[in-house]
Structure prediction request, 434 residues.
Amino acid sequence: MGPGMTTDTSYAREVDRQRDVVATTALGTAVAVLVAALAVGASAAPHAVAVETARPALGIAGHVTEMAAPAPTPWTGPSVVRQRTTPDRYTRPPTQPYRTFTVAATGDLLIHTPVRTRAALPGGGFDFAPQLAAAAADIAAADLAVCHLEVPLDPDGPYSSYPRFNAPAELAAGIATTGWDACSTASNHSADQGFDGVVQTLAALDAAAVAHEGMYRSEDEWRGLRLLDVDGIAVGLISATYGLNGLPAPGGHEWSVLRIDPTVILDRARSLRAAGAEVVIASLHWGAEYVHTPTTSQREVAAAVLGDGAVDAIIGHHAHVVQPVEWIAGRPVVYGLGNFLSGQRPTERRDGAVVTLEFSDSRTGWRVVAVHAQPTWVDDRYHVVLADPDAAGVLAASAQRTLGYLGVPLSPPPGPPDVHEPPPPPPRPHYERG
Prediction:
């Protein structure tokens, strides 16, 4: 509960008090009018009293309940009752209740050879779910969970690691089992296996019922928009990368992988809004590898994208180490989430996090009202495990690093009133003589 917020009970008491004030004042006015009329006498010209009768609907603690005001007694005198329009901040149609939802985002899925070897099954094939299982509860708990798939997928192989990745298509099933609903796919490795790699990757995700954005099999798919239905809330997803490691666009098709350009990203965001998106999230593959501090380019792109207002949050990838969370125009940019699962062994490249954004529908539109972080660590078995700053040993050290680089606390800066704050009491009734 934020500053200045009241509970349902205290606000209800305030509503009752305001009603008493209205009733007492109205009674006093009526008596005064009657006394004045008797004093003047029947021959005196009557004076009309115009009483404003509009009463705002009252919302209590994050939801709106329409309160029916008693019907006013019609005035029979010569003047007309003037009514004031109820301010918008006091009203909200009952079909538009205040809503919230959460989005969980994670770092790079970068399948090096030892990660793939760990997932290999004795009888053939691969199962990545056990390596991801420790974080499954945190991921599945979100209303929308988005992974970052940095490598192409292939059902047959041969498989490969850096510098040109080719990972087993069974990773898509592991993604679905762990609880991710969608994956951003635009990365500097999107072109590693050419256009066939794009087609096979998206086919594997489709087969696992995991939505995807950032790579495209056709120009029509590129023109299309990724809208996700999150419990009735339309969320738009954009995924773009800074480049393709010097490789040509897959198949020579520039539309096959979305590249970072603030103008293009904002045009896409506005198209998503026009198509019905209430919230738009951009996943950007950017920055300098192994550097915790965002680059000048990252900051410039973030300022351009978030400052416009068409995009509500940015989730960043590529650095392979954790980068900070900052706020631009009241909107969060998570510059980098590190590696979620990879074969990189330097200590800080094994740090990652499940970062959860809590969105709420306020009077001024959707905004992020809280950011939560669950640190993760890739252990010596190439399994993702949860890290805890209050634990001991490497897990405590990892969590402390991750939370430190993210910049905890992650609270948003002061902004519009919290969505759960009840509206102020209605104004006192105003009386005028006609």
